[in-house]
Specification:
Largest sheet: none
Distance between the termini: 72 Å
Number of strands: 0
Order of helices and strands: HHHHH
Strand content: under 5%
Helix content: over 70%
Number of helices: 5
Radius of gyration: 26 Å
């Protein structure tokens, strides 16, 4: 294969790539036009409530998926996974347009923070128990 063949093939591929890029842009524009009514009709409270509920479910299943062997001193560290809920709650509080969404977001932050700090306190207490026993 000569250099001119390679250059010609590269030019052909570039043209096909440009055509595919144009087609992708057209599809994206069509999808945006099709989704516009649904986006306009979406209630901000329902979107934020959905984020809150999904954060609760994710946090619940992540924490309960921890094996029992880790529940002793390491559970305090794994409770930091609740930071996912904290991030969702902070987003709900910051982006909320309604008072109810702000309240739910605040409750999510509050409860997840209790979980995180409580886990670290339990770990600290267990570490002090091991130090006293000489373990």
């Amino acid at each position: 294969m000569s250099m001119t063949d390679v250059a010609r093939d590269a030019g052909t591929l570039a043209e096909r790539l440009q055509a595919l890029a144009n087609e992708a842009l057209a599809l994206a524009a069509a999808a945006e036009r099709a989704a516009a009514p649904a986006i306009a009709a979406a209630d901000p409270f329902l979107m934020l409530l959905t984020i809150f509920l999904l954060a609760c479910f994710v946090g619940y299943y992540v924490v309960w998926s921890v094996t029992p062997a880790l529940h002793s001193p390491l559970m305090g560290v794994t409770n930091a996974i609740s930071s996912v809920i904290v991030v969702g709650g902070v987003m709900a509080v910051g982006l909320a347009e309604s008072a109810a969404a702000q309240v739910f977001g605040f409750l999510a932050v509050l409860l997840a923070s209790v979980n995180i700090f409580g886990g670290f306190l339990v770990t600290r207490r267990m570490l002090s128990m091991f130090k006293r026993k000489g373990g």
